[in-house]
Each structure stands twice: as structure tokens, then as C-alpha cells.
Amino acid sequence: xxxxxxxxxxxxxxxxxxxxxxxxxxxxxxxxxxxxxxxxxxxxxxxxxxxxxxxxxxxxxxxxxxxxxxxxxxxxxxxxxxxxxxxxxx
Length: 90
Known about the structure:
Blueprint: E1 2-4, E2 10-12, H1 16-33, E3 42-44, H2 54-62, E4 66-68, H3 82-89
Parallel strand pairs: 3-4
Antiparallel strand pairs: 1-2
Helix pairs in contact: 1-2
């Protein structure tokens, strides 16, 4: 569903329908820009819900792209380095 922003441009909520359309446009652009190359596509998603809906995963598999796994978020595995950034800020 498109909602205009204050500049009059359409904004979309990213749901699986919008994401599927983006993937189809991406595939068309790759095929258009590299018609003779049959490069293998390795695609990386994050763990957002629309990215792993069944239809999206089936579409990526249908395109014969490899899906690079994204590790789950963990605050203990992804430190913020707040103390380093804080000293630079001062």
C-alpha cells in the first residue's frame, strides 16, 4: 500500500509482495546488464520477516540463487564498542 510522504513520493511498507517485486526487478536487471554471463548469484538477506516468508524463499530457489545465511542478532556476539566511540566523541 503506497502512502505519499511530505515530498509527494510514494512510500511502501516492505512486505513480502513488495520484496518479491524487488527481487524480480533485480533478476531482470542482472539478466539485462549481463546477458552473456551466467554468473552464479549469491544473495544475502537479513533476518527481517518479509525476507524469509515461504514465497520469498521459493522465489529465490526458483531463480537458482544461493542464499547466504545471516546469523541471528545477539548483543553478546555483536558488541557496540560504546567506550571507543564515546572517547572519540569527546
